Amino acid sequence: MQDLARYPQTVLGTVCLPWQADGTLDDTIFSRTITNLVAAGLPDLYIFGTAGEGYAVTETVFRHVVRLFAKTMQDAGGAPPMVGVVSLSLATMIERIAFCEDQGIRSFQFSLPNWKATSDVEMRRVFAAICDRFPDSKFLHYNLMRSGRLVRPHDYAELAELHPNLVATKYGGGEPVMISGLLTLAPKLRHFFTEPGYFLGAPLGPCGLLASTASSHPKRAREYLHAGATGNSQRLCELYRELCGVLNALLFAVGTNLIDGAYDKVIHKLSEPDFPLALLPPYEAAPEAAFVQYRATLEAEYPDWLPHNTGCSQAIQDCYQRDGVVRVNSFFSLPEVAAIRERLHHYTHTIAPSLPATDVVFEADGVAVRNLWRMEQHDPFFAEIAARPAVRRFVATLVHGNPELMAVETFNKPARIGSGVPPHQDNAYFCQSPPDVLTIWVALDAATDQNGPIYYIRGSHTGGMLPHQPSGIQGNSMGLAVGFDKSDPFIGTLAPGDALIHHCQTIHYSSPNKTDHPRCGLLMVFRGSHTQVDQALRDLYTSPTKAV
Questions:
Q1: Among 93, 219, 323, 336, which is most exposed with the fewest C-beta within 10 angstroms?
Q2: Cβ count near 303 (within 10 Å)
Q3: Closest Cα to residue 159, out of 136, 179, 130?
Q4: Do residue 493 and residue 351 come from a single domain?
Q5: Which of 230, 264, 294 corresponds to the end of one domain?
Q6: What's the pLDDT tens digit per position in 278-310?
Q7: Exposed, middle or buried by CB within 10 Å (0-12, 13-18, 19+), for 384?
Q8: What is the Rg, in whole angstroms, of the alpha carbon atoms belonging to the chain?
Q9: Residue 448 sits in which domain range?
Q10: CA-closest candidate to residue 440, choices 466, 467, 468, 406
Q11: Has residue 256 been placed in a domain?
Q12: Domains contained in the chain, number
């Protein structure tokens, strides 16, 4: 079939806006997300679609985001940037397009104003006011019921003839009559469908993919586009079946009553672990627990739709350097976790009973294991895990040199009796200088907000070592001797296989586990080979009266 469309057949992807706690844009995460999406194979990006919160921002914020988006897209080598203009006011839409044109932007998408559903006459006025006023720009129309009505296929046929710079449409529904009508009656426009609609549209004619859940893996999204474009029905069906499962997993985890951006931010967070889920007021964001659940379901059932773990990405490095802690999804796969748990069971029942008291710590009942220390010295299995090339490459970037293993250990936190850990900095124990030391804390059980997760104080690693004192807690003999701000901690909730990476000077602590669910973690501690024992720090630590 001849392709008559005015716009390329490609995959379109959105970029959500990461908001800081004070409601301002996190420029670093925003720019990094764009760069990483382009590098992963999704160069055709837009902002301020329905998931982009363009309806909720001030004009000042709109202009800041547009400028940053355009610059980052150019620096990243992406396609010409596309900006959405979604508003109840046609005049505001026109003003925003004029501003963007002044920034050199020539690709836009818009939806109909929706204070009330526009009549056919009013709908045509909107298209004329936008397309005719800006003849040097290209426009995509987002056809959705939130605007109060749908533009029909025969309407698009007429509009395409009237406005040569109307080049494309977006349709997120799955109605076969609408999809077939768009492709049949308005072939001059490139029609972009979400994953379910693309499955229906691809056999009928050339169409584009509007990536939603598929954006978690741009390469695989392009494979889905290619399967439909080339008539590979078997592969199209295989990928469609997977994407249906992925969508169901998202809706089951998050629910069905939130606004669009809540879902897209959960998807973004798969690739950008520090991407905040918050939306601008008054809209409700997806909870962190929903993301953890979604991530765990993908790991168990649809792992091919998870972003590939390519090592210590720039996103991870930025988060670690800024906060002193970063969550890394699926550091170990579920089969790897199962193998570790099996070996840990063997270790606990076969090796631990013969260990010296320095290498195993029990809970208050004297039966349940609290900690296992120096496991790499007693079982080569655990030494080999830490020696994996992928693990060492990951660590090397963060410790600024060749990584040296210091220890493999566990914090078991058994159900109902798992004890808490006092606030402390690990370097009170390690006494290394420079402090290029980190801990990889891998969840073997789910760590929830109820069963004693670790709390971290963001940025506390930059403040140097604080005074410590004996805590009287076996297994965690030192605790901070000074107060600190606990008002906004990073809470280390994890799915099995996820990991927390924290700096040796980051303040952290945990509460007892009073639930019926254990929260066991496997820890690997590494230092850069260039670090040395700071004797002054060691002398303070071993002082009988106080330690730093």
A1: 219
A2: 11
A3: 130
A4: yes
A5: 230
A6: 999 999 999 988 998 998 898 889 988 988 654
A7: exposed
A8: 27
A9: 323-541
A10: 406
A11: no
A12: 2
| pLDDT bracket for residue 445 (50, 70, 90) | very high
The single residue listed with the structure tokens 């004297």 is 366
User: Helix, strand, or coil here: 55?
Assistant: coil
Q: Are residues 200 and 328 in the same domain?
A: no
- Through-space distance between the first and last CA atoms of the chain, rounded to whole angstroms: 74
- Structural domain includes residue 426: yes
pLDDT digits (tens, 9 = 90+) for 355-392: 999 999 999 999 999 999 999 999 999 999 999 888 99
Which of 230, 261, 286 delimits the end of a domain? 230
Residue 39 is predicted with a pLDDT of: 83
Residue 506: both structure tokens together: 């980051």
Residue 84 pairs in a beta bridge with 109
Residue 66: give its domain's CATH number.
3.20.20.70
- Least confidently predicted of 161-165, 333-337, 477-481: 333-337
- Range in 149-153, 404-408, 478-482 with the lowest mean pLDDT: 478-482
Compute how many other C-beta atoms are within 10 angstroms of the C-beta atom of residue 88.
11
What is the pTM assigned to this prediction? 0.66
- Are residues 198 and 75 located together in one domain of the fold? yes
State the DSSP H helix or E strand holding residue 69, giving kind and residue range, or none if neither: helix 59-76
Distances (CA, A) of 180 to 72, 197, 205, 459: 37, 10, 9, 54
What pLDDT, on the 0 to 100 scale, is given for residue 547? 37
Q: Which amino acid is at 73?
A: M
309 domain-assigned: no
Distance CA 380, CA 244 (A): 42
Q: β-pairing, 138-143 with 166-171?
A: parallel
Contact 416, 514 (CB under 8 A): yes
222, 345: one domain: no
Residue percentage of the chain with pLDDT more than 70: 98
User: Is residue 465 domain-shared with residue 335, that is, in the same domain?
Assistant: yes
Distance CA 92, CA 281 (A): 21
